[in-house]
Amino acid sequence: MHYFRVEDEKIICLLCQHYCKLKEGQVGICGVNQNQNSILKNLVYGRVVALHVDPVEKKPLYHFLPGTLSLSLGTVGCNFRCPFCQNWQISQSKDIARGDLVSAEQVVALALEKGCKSISFTYNEPTIFYPFAKEIALRAKTKGLKSIFVSNGLESAEVIEDMKGVIDGFNVDLKSFDPHYYKKTLKGSLSGVLETLKRLKKGGFWVEVTTLIVPGSNDSRAELQKIASFIANEMDIYTPWHISAFHGDYKMQDTPRTSIEKLLEAKEIGEMAGLKYIYMGNVQTKAVTFCPHCKDGVMTRNRFELLEYRLKDGTCPKCNRAIEGVWL
To answer: Is there a contact between 280 and 240 (Cβ–Cβ < 8 Å)?
Structure first.
């Protein structure tokens, strides 16, 4: 795809729904895409600042190649300004010279060397370096590797269309259901994220949703009900919902941790909305996947470790119902 279009002697970046309109030399909200000679230049192309081998459960993805490793990478920059960001040292950095220059070929070779089954674009918002991610993902496909986006969900419609056949799985943060909070505090768009989630689901991507429950910000019962209802009604009841505990970081270090009682309340709300796969994150408790038909436990995890995997070709061993997900 073309990552920009020309309008009134400026270019409009098409990588996310901010659609930044850039004059010559100007950089977008993300800090890493610039108008250079009427062409969109991705300033962090190949400039990797974070590179780790993680369990895929850490993304978190629980229904996507469980028990496997994913080579995870990120750059500097972000198109959001979340005050609780756990990776703010890179996501909010404007130092585009940070990190090592790495080729797509080197990334894929490393993933294979480390025994990974996928490559995850994460740590900062990957849609802002989608041109680089796409090159990696296409090369990865030739080697049998899948690709994952861990995202805030503000991808443009143009990018989502281009991702078909390129990116396989998503974990998208649905951080709130308050449009004012998204706009004022996060510098994003609730309606934009909701549209992305619907587009991804309609587009056939595997999608899991995460809500970090931040005390005093998005933890009211009414708001959690709206989030759960959206997932159930606008996506489907088999979309995994990860409800994660907050801990203080970046500009919110004095905010208390999310209580286990609040997570249990959110889990109950999700169940009442009809969601079949709900998982509590950032707490020491086992996460069990139950068959929606016979209620048998088919997978058990402790944090990022898969303790038990009983699926047979993606189906429940007791009643043979297919379990939603992407399996080996």
So the answer is: no
At 199 the pLDDT is 98
Report how far residue 171's alpha carbon sits from residue 242's, in angstroms, rounded to the nearest whole number: 9
Q: How far apart are CA 277 and CA 135, in angstroms?
A: 33
What does the alpha-carbon distance between residue 316 and residue 72 come to, in Å, rounded to a whole number?
30
Let me know the angle formed at the C-alpha of 24 by 17 and 45, rounded to the nearest 5 degrees: 60
Distance separating alpha carbons of residues 76 and 93, to the nearest angstrom: 6
- Residue 200's CB is within 10 A of a number of other CB atoms, namely 23
At residue 109, the pLDDT reads 98
Do 53 and 71 contact (CB within 8 A), yes or no? yes
Which pLDDT belongs to residue 89?
Answer: 98
Q: Which segments of the chain have a pLDDT < 70? A: none
